[in-house]
Design goal:
The structure is a single chain. This protein is α/β, with parallel strands linked by helices and 254 residues long. The protein is built from nine helices and nine strands. Strands 1-9-8-7-6-5-4-2-3 form a nine-stranded mixed beta sheet. The protein is globular, with a radius of gyration of 17 Å. The protein starts with 7 loop residues before the first strand and ends with a helix.
């Protein structure tokens, strides 16, 4: 079991994407930074599911792992072409060192195109593996990715750490569930635009039915980016967790 309470609320890129301002903070906190993660953990302390946070990880030209959702910097430079120091982004190892060990982390891994060409030891999964091995000894982890090849690599090399398939819009829930089950993963994480109330395809099975099939297949289900208004619908459908931008709003709603 990944989540001890359903639905567990997970802070998206920390306190939320888009540099939100936590209550009591005079300034916004940038996503995928330690202040954002600490703000989310503080807001979620005492929540039934615990202070889960989500981070995005990608590699740089000098084989470091940094926190960044997009493959480019804000100036448009590709991270895979830049050394970590030039990116100005926090290192994954630094974040793990500073984040309290009682904060569980969903590590969303962004692989790069060059992983198809580089030596196996330089690929994103190989760089990530020793970091996750160390960190799994001190905190609860979940690793999610859009890249099935990375997940299968980690499945062989990192037993005991749960893995989840991420999907978005054009790869909807009713495809994602059998795909994740066929890969032998532990969870499926779907964008709200890929399922249920926000998807325009009325031929869909009810959302509750999709979640029930996933559960019977041994998968936990995660909805990412539901609004506070939509969150009760996903909670009622039986989702195990929700990755959200509005942490206090969703907590209040569910």
């Amino acid at each position: 079991m990944i989540f001890e309470h359903a639905p567990t609320v997970i802070g998206h890129r920390g306190y939320g994407s888009g540099d939100p301002t936590p209550p009591g903070s005079p300034t916004p906190v940038a996503e995928n930074t330690l202040p954002s993660l600490l703000a989310a953990a503080e807001a979620l302390r005492g929540a039934p599911g615990g202070p889960w946070v989500e981070i995005d990880v990608t590699r740089t030209a000098d084989d470091h792992l940094v926190l960044r959702h997009d493959p480019t910097t804000s100036e448009g430079d590709h991270l895979v072409d830049l050394p970590a120091t030039a990116s100005g982004l926090p290192l994954l190892t630094e974040i793990f060192a500073e984040l309290p060990a009682d904060v569980p982390v969903d590590v969303d891994v962004k692989t790069v195109l060059e992983d198809a060409l580089d030596e196996p030891s330089r690929r994103t999964g190989a760089l990530l593996l020793p970091v996750l091995r160390r960190e799994a000894r001190r905190r609860r982890l979940l690793v999610t990715s859009f890249d099935p090849s990375l997940l299968m690599f980690l499945k062989d090399e990192l037993p005991g750490v749960p893995l989840g398939l991420l999907t978005w819009l054009r790869f909807p829930l009713w495809h994602a569930v059998p795909a994740a089950a066929g890969l032998g993963l532990d969870a499926v994480a779907v964008h709200t635009g890929s399922c249920g109330i926000e998807h325009p395809d009325t031929r869909l099975r009810p959302l509750e039915h999709c979640v029930d099939v996933a559960r019977k297949a041994g998968l936990e289900t995660i909805a990412w980016c539901p609004s506070a208004e939509a969150a009760p619908t996903y909670a009622a459908a039986g989702f195990d967790a929700m990755v959200v931008n509005d942490v206090p709003g969703v907590l209040a709603a569910v």
